[in-house]
Design a protein that fits this description.
mainly alpha
């Protein structure tokens, strides 16, 4: 005779898997392309990634070294910003140009100006704005 077995009906708590170094390196390569589309200087790109310009240039030429948790968060937010812009703007060039255009949501500053504040929260602020604009919130 078969015995009844208890079934666990409680979902386990969500625990996001950490980003692997391979995934982080892929995001870094994608960010390089994005920075080119946004026409950023190396100084600006390094600020967004919170690293010395010299390190940024070395990573750009040779590939990234170990990417920190903060670096992964920055790259993730940049990818989210890019995704939101591609959803909002049917024409990619308009989305790339939006980054440098003044915006009432940022008191007349551009999204790039906000992000160049250098803090992770500055990137998050732009991403949250775009996600809310596209209806992703």
């Amino acid at each position: 005779m078969l015995a009844l077995q208890p079934v666990d009906t409680v979902a386990p708590a969500f625990r996001p898997e950490p980003v692997t170094q391979e995934e982080a390196a892929a995001m870094f390569r994608a960010a390089l392309g994005l920075f080119g589309k946004w026409e950023l200087t190396d100084d600006q790109a390094a600020t967004l990634l919170d690293m010395p310009v010299r390190t940024y240039r070395r990573w750009k030429a040779e590939g990234p070294g170990r990417i920190s948790r903060d670096g992964c968060a920055r790259l993730s937010n940049l990818m989210g910003i890019h995704k939101a812009l591609r959803i909002i703007f049917a024409e990619a060039r308009r989305g790339y140009g939006w980054i440098k255009a003044g915006n009432d949501a940022f008191a007349g500053s551009s999204a790039l100006d906000v992000m160049l504040g250098g803090e992770l929260t500055d990137l998050m602020r732009v991403r949250r704005y775009l996600d809310a604009t596209r209806g992703g919130w």
